[in-house]
Specification:
Layout lengths: L1 H17 L17 E3 L2 E5 L5 E9 L6 E13 L4 E6 L13 E2 L5 E3 L4 E9 L7 E10 L8 E2 L8 E9 L7 E7 L3 E2 L4 E9 L8 E8 L4 E7 L10 E9 L8 E11 L4 E11 L2 H33 L14
Parallel strand pairs: 2-11, 13-19
Antiparallel strand pairs: 1-3, 3-8, 4-5, 4-7, 4-9, 5-10, 6-8, 9-11, 12-14, 14-17, 15-16, 15-18, 18-19
Helix pairs in contact: 1-2
């Protein structure tokens, strides 16, 4: 019996220890040096036939002369992380394209050490510009531009660019759809991971904003998490994923919880909302329950054995006394 109990307690200890061992994760660090530009992103509204003059400041922080070549491209969303992918200007412009509207006289810029240069350009919206969003980028590359239909993220690694998002008024369609708001049903330890996926079914970009409100089973508010804290855009014909973590502080963060998502998007502030339920049952509580169950079983076994011994002692005759011999008075 004692040997069995030792094995059980050893297994419980190993289970509890494994839940706190660190998990090795690969990390990637992207670093670089060289030119910097301002602004890195530009958002504006242009009416059909209207022209807007813009400036990009290019800074050379190095101690050498740097020559760069402006390259104009279109961009659209790549995957669900908000990362853009780029394509060169073609005769047949794709939907939501902007590159052909961007004009500049500069084809080459030379920067002396620690010099700041202003790159002047203008955006000319055609008379028949389609209402909605149009997206382009002005890159500055160390090599002359080459005609390519598609440009991968690897090939633009040596470039630096300013993203341009233009909205043309008219028949604007703002239509967002909540594809997913989820978390795992059960957690043995924090953090709790929330995933929000929003699709843009309209013809213009928008920035969803809002909160995830977490409450316990009594309805008490535990915390609010900001969704899209970086203020990222969801481009048309794309889906973007936003992630939040709740560290669930405190040893007694246990039980059933609800998470309420409330978002607004677009100029008209349309709403998206959802609700999910999840449980936090920490390892220490599971281990404590197992220990309690084992102790209860041990107590029941001990109590039964004790009662059994008492019954045996009562049924056993008293030694040294002949029960058939009369007692003298």
């Amino acid at each position: 019996m004692k040997k069995t109990l030792k094995i059980i307690f050893l297994l419980i200890f190993l289970i509890s220890l494994s839940s706190y061992l660190p998990i090795s994760r690969s990390q990637a660090q992207i670093s670089g040096e060289g030119l910097t530009i301002s602004p890195p992103i530009l958002e504006l509204t242009l009416k059909p036939g209207e022209t807007s003059k813009q400036v990009i400041k290019i800074t050379n922080p190095t101690e050498k002369i740097v020559e760069v070549y402006p390259i104009v491209m279109n961009f659209h969303a790549k995957g669900e992380t908000g990362e853009p992918t780029f394509s060169a200007v073609t005769d047949e412009e794709a939907k939501f394209a902007l590159a052909k509207w961007i004009k500049s006289r500069d084809t080459k810029i030379a920067l002396t050490p620690e010099q700041v240069v202003e790159f002047n350009y203008q955006i000319e919206a055609p008379i028949g510009a389609e209402p909605g969003g149009h997206y382009g980028v002005v890159f500055f590359a160390t090599e002359p531009p080459q005609a390519k239909e598609d440009v991968s993220q690897v090939s633009i690694a040596s470039m630096i660019g300013s993203l341009i998002l233009v909205k043309v008024p008219g028949n604007i369609v703002e239509k967002g759809f909540l594809e997913e708001f989820s978390a795992k049903r059960f957690y043995f330890k924090p953090p709790v991971d929330f995933v929000t996926r929003i699709s843009n079914l309209g013809n213009v970009h928008f920035k969803p904003k809002g909160e995830i409100t977490i409450k316990d089973w009594l309805g008490n508010k535990k915390e609010s998490l900001t969704v899209n804290e970086s203020k990222g855009n969801v481009l048309p014909d794309s889906t973007r994923k936003f992630e939040n973590k709740w560290p669930a502080p405190g040893l007694w963060t246990i039980g059933k919880f609800s998470a309420n998502l409330k978002l607004v998007y677009g100029e008209s502030e349309k709403t998206l909302d959802s609700k999910i339920i999840f449980w936090i049952v920490p390892w220490w509580l599971i281990i404590a329950l197992i220990v309690i169950i084992i102790l209860v079983i041990i107590f029941i076994v001990w109590l039964r054995r004790r009662r059994s011994r008492r019954r045996e002692n009562k049924a056993k005759p008293i030694s040294g006394i002949d029960q058939h011999r009369p007692i003298l008075r």
